[in-house]
Amino acid sequence: MDAGPLTLREALALALLGNPDLAAASWQVRVREAEVLQAGLLPNPELEIEVEEFGGSEDRGGFDSAETTVLLSQVIQLGGKVGARTRVAELERDLAGWDFEAARLQVLADTAGAFIRAVAAQRRLALAEKSLGLAEQVFEVIRERVAAGKVSPLEESRAGVALATTRIARARAERSLLAARTDLAARWGGTADEIAEIDGDLERLSAPPALASLLQAVSQSPSIARWETEAAHRLATLEREKAAAWPDVAASGGVLRFEETDDWAFVVGLSIDLPIFDRNQGGIGAARHQVARAREERRAAVVAQRAALEMAYHSLVAAFGEASSLRDDVMPAAQRVFEASREAYERGKVGYLEVLDAQRTLFEARGQYVDALSSYHESVAEVEGLVAAPLVPDAEAPDQDEEDENRAPDQEEKDAEKAPDQDEKDEDDEND
């Protein structure tokens, strides 16, 4: 595996090639193909050799009076059994193909979700490191003010507690990232050590399409589309059971040799079961009930798929709204409040509690934004898996380039642009 940053496309390709569940599903398709071959084969002929009238007493002793019969028999299956059996096997092969496609889509959706969680964990670690840097800056400012006798040493203790808490949060973020990478690599049977860095963009947001259009696309899902094949399979099974009611004919032919006279003669035979008691009534009845059951099972599958889609869609809409609000309103305001409170504290206009509260609010807003972005993209992956197609953004949604121009700048750029240089602040304090 390349040591460079792992992209979503690469992760999906690795999962398709190495996922063990998907590999098992592909072998099941081959199993069904072999069963189609077996279903079309005729019964083997049977060779029978029978020796009579030997080893007895007096004139029947030895083999001088023996009669030897050589018969070749063949079962002839009536009622279209071979065709019916082959048709059932072919439809079972097709169902295995649908199951493989469903497994493939599930692997893609699960891998996309794991990739998003790993990107979010990587983003949380970066935020934790940034938060730690801000906490260290605040702590240094307070320690200097304590040393200068401007504030109580109690405020330094409070800042120290906040700094220690931020360090704990950073360590927790590191562990979460390792767990997320382990979960992602497991999708193709790999390990977390294979993933050096993850290249993913959580910032891209598009307004979800209308729910009605997604509900119409539910039938494209393999878990729903397979039921047409399943219904045909149940009907083919019924026809196979009807064919089984026909008795098979066993035809035989051979020669009979008389050792005593050195003569021989032909022997022919024909046998057939008499369908008096067993006409496969139970098998036919069970197959009919399975046909009726298939209709209800398909309806239940559609109801479950639509319910799952609606739940995922509502989560998608909620996450989109939350992420948009946090990006456009909450985070810029929290950043401004924090910068203003820190500057006011350094000038002695507010207490440290105000700075601590503003800092906590900013950190929480950043974490909520990453959580909302992760929830949004995980919901997108889930919805795409349910409809078996990529989401088409709403026509009224702004173009991403225009949206990038109008949205608030990245938080790192905010910190770099808005956070005053520490040396300049110290000079201002000395001037004051």
Task: Explain what the structure shows.
By secondary structure, this protein is an alpha+beta fold. It has one domain: Outer membrane efflux proteins (OEP) (Up-down Bundle). It has eleven helices and four strands; from the N terminus they run H-H-E-E-H-H-H-H-E-E-H-H-H-H-H. The chain has helices at 8-18, 20-39, 81-147, 153-185, 211-216, 222-244, 281-346, 352-387, 400-406, 411-418, 422-431; strands spanning 46-52, 67-76, 249-258, 263-272. It has a four-stranded antiparallel sheet, with no helix packed on it. Strand 3 (249-258) and strand 4 (263-272) form a beta hairpin. The radius of gyration is 38 Å and the shape is elongated. It starts with 7 loop residues before the first helix and ends with a helix. The model is unreliable at 394-432 (pLDDT under 50).
